Amino acid sequence: MLLWIPALQQRGSTVNFIVSDSGAHILNSWTQEDQNLQELMAALAAVGPPNPRADPECCSILHGLVAAVETLCKITEYQHEARTMLMENAERVGNRGRIICITNAKSDSHVRMLEDCVQETIHEHNKLAANSDHLMQIQKCELVLIHTYPVGEDSLVSDRLKKELSPVLTSEVHSVRAGRHLATKLNVLVQQHFDLASTTITNIPMKPTFNVCDQVSTFLRRKKKGRITEQNAVLLHQQFDSAIQEEQHANTSANYDVELLHHKDAHVDFLKSGDNHMGGNNREGTLKETVTLKWCTPRTNSVELHYCTGAYRISPVDVNSRPSSCLTNFLLNGRSVLLEQPRKSGSKVISHMLSSHGGEIFLHVLSSSRSILEDPPSISEGCGGRVTDYRITDFGEFMRENRLTPFLDPRYKIDGSLEIPLERAKDQLEKHTRYWPMIISQTTIFNMQAVVPLASLIVKEALTDEDILNCQKTIYNLVDMERKNDPLPISTVGTRGKGPKRDEQYRIMWNELETLVRAHIYNSDKHQRVLECLLACRSKPPEEEERKKRGRKREEKEDKTEKSGKDYELEKPWQESERLKGVLDREKEELAEAEVIKDSPDSPEPPNKKPLVMMDEIPPVEKTKGPMSLLSLWSNRINTANSRKHQEFIGRLNSINNKAELYQHLKEENGMESTENGKASRQ
């Protein structure tokens, strides 16, 4: 049975492995020299398989659990250094650890027996460590029992979440099938215990290579020293056969995937940006998730790297696999690899980079968003889209009014309790934001200068009599504005036509003002008085309502008249233009006939068929209200031109109002009096 004991410290975490059969076999120590894979593999190879001739009753996991508690009480190099530097404050150095026990338990009662054993052992060794300078008491220990059972069988042990057994010891139980399922479970636990995350690098191009000669020489050297048994030799021979077959096909390249472990902070930028399509998937049906990043051929030198926001050490999950070995060797040779974040939209985003520094490989987080060194983005490019009418000026004033200042002297509330500065600041911020529209088009009262006194006073925790008077004055001013029918700053963005009617604008304004006041009526009784004044001013008398109704009817009638007038004006020019066109065509025909008759030698001089008046006797054209239309201008021009073409008829010259009386001698003979031409005559 194997025990894995990582020492949980802020830094310098170390791991100790113990194998338990008839006794406890400690494979390594807390020193940094033993914290590497080569030493651990060599120690595991030296342990060998269990002795088949040994008594099964003598093999117990209890030997390893006791040795694990003893090992946790020993001082590590980091703890010794911290105690030496602190000197008199040495008690501040903590000693916490976790025991991971991989075993096959018989039942839940067997698990409880193991927990009791660990609890008693910790209690005894803490007593010994209290009187020793070379040991440290265990302040906190986590026991993780992993029960393994064969594939195809049912587990006899129930899973259990973390449970506190004592102030020092907590325990949790996991049941998992043997084989690859155990390795996956350990991988998940490692991520939980050390705040790690998984990243899978896909599409890594490499040629599979395997140095069989080196492996054979190592095998013969170990066999000569007697470190390899017959069973291990058979397994190694099988591995060599498969390796030789793979090397025969090594001329072809393939794409591989390598899973890496690193600190979870490397993915914090994705979580903050809300990028949920970053390639996470579940592997082998477990709860372990990995982020998929695609290999991207680097096109820049290491000097021309992108802006980096973080670097974290990495470790391959399968350290002995050929893809992991090829990747680590490639990076340790001074190469850097850019990693691409796959997107559903098909765009290419370089988000990470693998590079080595000082013999260690780091995963660098590249800035894929706007750099802090650039100019800040426009406020219109925020979460709400391209909104251009934010109340930016008002928000700056809002921040100025709610600045934090140092809290020097303590203050007490009305009930005598101490006032906490942070809670007071939160309370003030909550009052100022109960009703605070962010967009100009969503508010009316905050765009009116007349409402500023009330809006600045109503957010106060308590109002004075003078404050109430100022609020009432503001309300009365609004009533006077409504009586005078003054315009309001109503936004017409996105609306067609002239916008809402004037009384509708004031109704919107009063509703919004009531919403603002109602949001603060529970601050004090005087806030309630402001609301009562507002409601009293909103309830208009009947004659006021009747006047408003008549005003609305008059506006509707004017709108209808204006609309019909516009339609008539649009139709009238077309009709007049058609009539004018017909008149001009007839005049052209008459002029053409007159020219033909005049040119004939046998025809007499035709009389003037259409006598025209002189220019000085043309009655003045009545001036029209407003600008003259194109038809009126054209008609005046035609009349003026026609009046100049012929000499005026002599009868019209002596008449009144350009009307000549015909056959006047007949009327004189009959003794009739004619007055139409302005001359009275009697026979």
UniProtKB/TrEMBL annotation:
InterPro entries xrefs: Cell_cycle_regulator_Mat89Bb (IPR019355)
GO cellular component terms, semicolon-separated: cytoplasm; integrator complex
Segments of skewed composition (Basic and acidic residues): 591-601
Stretches the record annotates as Disordered: 541-573, 591-611
BP GO terms, sorted: cell division; centrosome localization; regulation of mitotic cell cycle
Subcellular localization(s) per the UniProt record: Cytoplasm; Nucleus
Lineage: Eukaryota, Metazoa, Chordata, Craniata, Vertebrata
Protein name: Integrator complex subunit 13
Pfam families: Mat89Bb
Record keywords, A-Z: Cell cycle, Cell division, Cytoplasm, Mitosis, Nucleus
Superkingdom of the organism of origin: Eukaryota
UniProt record similarity statement: Belongs to the Integrator subunit 13 family.
